[in-house]
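Now for my pick.
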Amino acid sequence: MDIPIIDKSNYLKGLLITAKKDNQLAESEKKIIKEISLKLGFASDFYEDIIKSLLNNKYIKDDPIIFSDKKIAESFLDDGLRLAFSDNRVTDNEINWLKSTAHANDISIKWFDEKLAQHKSSPGILLNTDFALYSII
């Protein structure tokens, strides 16, 4: 699938918002964001600049992200949940924001809750698998 540039940008922005929601940035989150950022075609220095100021950046609005395609939205939500669980500290802020993004993209709450349960039941196992993004690129 050819992902439009705006969706690539929103995918990365959504991961940054998710990471920021618990007011901390763990190494596991940095690793996931970096890997996906590079896969989406962003330069590594761009990633480095964003990460340095992420927690203090007041200009990243946290409105739900709307994607142009449902498959991209589902992929993002799956990777967003993976990111939220990667630091073993999942907050209501992270889950509620991802859920609002699901709603904004007409993703069923049942689908979201199933993915959430999957990540809750095996967070360590999912860290060793490919990102959902890879299945649509």
Q: What stands out?
A: The radius of gyration is 14 Å. The helical segments are 5-20, 27-39, 44-53, 70-86, 92-104, 109-121, 123-127. Residues 5-135 form one domain. The chain has a mean pLDDT of 92.
